[in-house]
């Protein structure tokens, strides 16, 4: 392991923003549209709901189906159970990686990108190297590669990227990973990959299969629609899984209803296609609204859209919040931005009504 490093001289220059949870709490009254946490308001499948209800009767028992879920994932990905770790959402898996690698050296990340892992690593005195996005709002893989040196413990790649909704060119990402993972481990956060037309083509699961030093994090909180139940998994080399498991409670950290819901939902294509179709319809409504109102936006591969504001971001969040609409703001490239999660059509209409008043 690399030697432990001294604290960085200056605070890491990550873009400042509220967390999803803080943004939700910031709205003063009841919400008409909860569009700040990239949830999937179409919820879990009917099969998952049924499984949750059935599991309630036996909830005095410890959850026993983690093995079944791990095996299902292993079979689908062509890997072994030793490559897979489950936890209560992907957040605890990001925390495990932050603790393990953050104590060894620095984290290279994009900016803006999902800041959870680097921010947690920072608490272990890990220096954060924040690399600005390219002109088309994607992670700048070339610039990130140039930052890799003897002090680097981990490269964190969020693909598709939160908050921009952009996705990396698969061939480019795979070539980057094959090269860079020979020097340092790579953590790919694929929380939103299920929203892509061909998630398998975009995913780095194959890199794990080929034995590369790559970790892939997935979650049931987004397209699968049960963020409130908490299930996520990490796929990596078995020695990495052993190392990260030191920081985890283990399979008992996931409740029985959550594991049951995940078992019946995993790769349920009929449900996934239906949720995707509804998401795309709401996203098109938002694109049309923004165009009509004279706003640009970053074309999104995900269930959220980022667009540049024409007013102060904090004031925008407050004014929208007063109208029962919760969204998030960012500031980067000397520009104020709003990120809107894609909701149900009634939520998008509530957003539109508030937006035409506030903007
Ligand atoms: N990764 C990314 C990129 C996310 O946006 C989120 C949720 N906002 C997470 C991980 C964590 O989600 P969960 O713990 O619910 O899996």
From TrEMBL:
The keyword Transferase appears for this protein: yes
Entry-linked PANTHER family: HISTIDINOL-PHOSPHATE AMINOTRANSFERASE, HISTIDINOL-PHOSPHATE AMINOTRANSFERASE 2
Family (UniProt): Belongs to the class-II pyridoxal-phosphate-dependent aminotransferase family. Histidinol-phosphate aminotransferase subfamily.
CDD domains in the cross-refs: AAT_like
Highest taxon above the source species: Bacteria
InterPro entries named among the record's database cross-references: Aminotransferase_I/II_large (IPR004839), HistidinolP_aminotransfase (IPR050106), PyrdxlP-dep_Trfase (IPR015424), PyrdxlP-dep_Trfase_major (IPR015421), PyrdxlP-dep_Trfase_small (IPR015422), TAT_signal (IPR006311)
UniProtKB keywords: Aminotransferase, Pyridoxal phosphate, Signal, Transferase
Residues of the Aminotransferase class I/classII large domain: 35-354
GO molecular function: pyridoxal phosphate binding; transaminase activity
Protein name: Aminotransferase class I/classII large domain-containing protein
